[in-house]
Amino acid sequence: AILGAASLQKKINAFCVTIDGSYARTRYGGELSAYGFKGKGTLLHALCDKSGRWLSWHLTPANAVEWRQTQWLIKDVIRATGKKPKIIQGDKGYDCEQLRLQMSYKFDMGTAFPKRKNSLDQSGGKPEKRFVIERLFAQLQNSFRRLADCWEKLFVTRNAFYHAAFVRYWLKRGKWDRFNCAIFIIHDKCSFSGFT
Fold first, then answer.
1. CA pair distance 1, 22, nearest whole angstrom
2. What angle do helix axes 131-143 and 155-172 make, rounded to 10 degrees?
3. pLDDT tens profile 79-129
4. What is the pTM of this model?
5. Dihedral angle sign, alpha carbons of residues 96, 56, 76, 42
6. Distance separating alpha carbons of residues 135 and 117, to the nearest angstrom
7. Is the four-CA dihedral 46, 50, 54, 56 of positive or negative sign?
8. Are the CB atoms for 19 and 133 separated by under 8 Å?
9. From the centroid of its chain, how far is CA 123?
10. Fewest 10 Å CB contacts: which of 15, 45, 160, 195?
11. pLDDT tens track for 156-187
């Protein structure tokens, strides 16, 4: 609901989107806790627009394959805004021929992922302004310190913090009236709880 309203007010520039993952350590384990490259924790997979605005997220264990989460993030953006991005960019973790084919044939999107050193085909687009997703993660960790460390064991509780952070993030970046704010919060609560 809040992304749809932001899209109508032309606050979202979804022509080119950037994807990346951010690690958050878990203190007491939990449902999504697993050992990854940086230790035991979870991964926040996020998608932002060209201006660095938060569009979608997905939580996985720390050892999850990053590029497999891409289609779910794209589907969330299309469902919320009604617009299909044209280009997606990311780091070397998304250098996968299967992902390129999936984005091309399923979503009709171009990709700009840098090639790994051991890749046979070194041709391909290089990402531009990929710092926007890193800046988004820094903003989230500074504004919502609860997202940096995971103290919750249940996935439902952990996801609720991200829903609250997402709603507050957008309310701070738009001029919404009080009625729309209430509708956004109620709709997000209901969709998260499974009532809609």
1. 25
2. 100
3. 888 888 888 888 888 888 888 888 889 888 888 888 777 665 555 566 667
4. 0.78
5. positive
6. 26
7. negative
8. yes
9. 27
10. 195
11. 888 888 888 888 888 887 665 554 555 555 45
